[in-house]
Write a structure and sequence with these properties.
sugar transport, transmembrane helix
C-alpha cells in the first residue's frame, strides 16, 4: 500500500475524531435544555475554516482535504443546529451564522469571478485558510492563562490535548509528504499549544498529587 495513501486516510480519521469533541457539549445542551455552559462561536469559526480548507483542497486537487473538511463541516453544522434549537438568543445566533454565510458567499463569488491565474488564487486561499486555523489554535491560550492563574490543570482535557497533538503532527507529516508547506504553518501553533498543555498537566498534576494525603 502506498505510504501517502495510508497517511492520507489516517489523517482524515484523526481529524474527524478531533472534531467529534463537540459531541459532549451537544449532549450537555440536550440534557440541560440550555446553552449557558457551551460556547457557540467555536462551532461557527471551525465551520468557516472547514469551508476555506475545502476550497483550498479543490484548487490543489487534494481529495484528502476535500473529504476531511466536508465531514468536519457536516459535524459543525449539526452542532450549530442543536445549539440554536435550545438557545434563548436564537435570533442573535442566526445573525452570527448569517454574517459568516455572507462572508463565505462573498469569498466564493470572488473565487469564481476572479481573472487571476489559478496559482495566485490558490496561494490567496491558502493564506486565508491558514490565518483562520491559526486563530482557532490561539484559543487555548486563554485556557493556559487560567491554569497559570489558578495553578490547577484540571480544566485541561488530556484526551483532547493528545488528539490535538496527534492531528497537528499528522498534518505536518502530510505537508512534507505532499510538498505543500501551506499545510505546515497552521499546525505549528497546534503542536506548540498541545505541548504546552502537556507540560502544564505534568507540572500541576504532579504538584496536586504531592499535596494529596497518603492512603497508606
Amino acid at each position: 500500500m502506498d505510504h501517502l495513501y495510508l497517511l492520507s486516510w489516517i489523517t482524515v480519521i484523526f481529524t474527524v475524531i478531533m472534531n467529534l469533541t463537540g459531541i459532549p457539549s451537544c449532549l450537555e445542551i440536550y440534557r440541560s435544555k440550555n446553552t449557558q455552559n457551551v460556547m457557540f462561536l467555536p462551532f461557527v469559526t471551525t465551520g468557516v475554516s472547514n469551508c476555506l480548507w475545502y476550497c483550498y483542497g479543490v484548487f490543489t486537487y487534494d481529495w484528502n482535504l476535500q473529504i476531511t473538511n466536508v465531514c468536519c463541516f457536516a459535524l459543525q453544522l449539526t452542532f450549530i443546529v442543536i445549539f440554536i434549537a435550545y438557545t434563548d438568543s436564537m435570533l442573535f445566533r442566526l445573525a452570527q451564522c448569517g454574517v459568516a454565510a455572507i462572508i463565505l458567499s462573498a469569498f466564493f463569488i470572488y473565487l469564481t469571478t476572479s481573472s487571476q491565474p489559478h496559482q495566485s488564487i490558490t496561494i490567496q486561499i491558502g493564506l486565508i485558510a491558514t490565518s483562520s486555523t491559526m486563530i482557532m489554535y490561539s484559543s487555548p491560550l486563554m485556557e493556559l492563562a487560567d491554569v497559570f492563574k489558578t495553578k490547577n490543570a484540571r480544566k485541561i482535557s488530556l484526551p483532547l490535548t493528545a488528539a490535538s497533538l496527534s492531528c497537528s503532527l499528522l498534518w505536518t507529516f502530510y505537508s512534507f509528504a505532499t510538498h505543500d508547506l501551506v499545510l505546515l504553518f497552521p499546525n505549528i501553533p497546534g503542536i506548540l499549544s498541545s505541548l504546552a498543555r502537556f507540560a502544564l498537566l505534568w507540572y500541576y498534576g504532579r504538584r496536586e498529587n504531592k499535596g494529596q494525603p497518603s492512603l497508606v
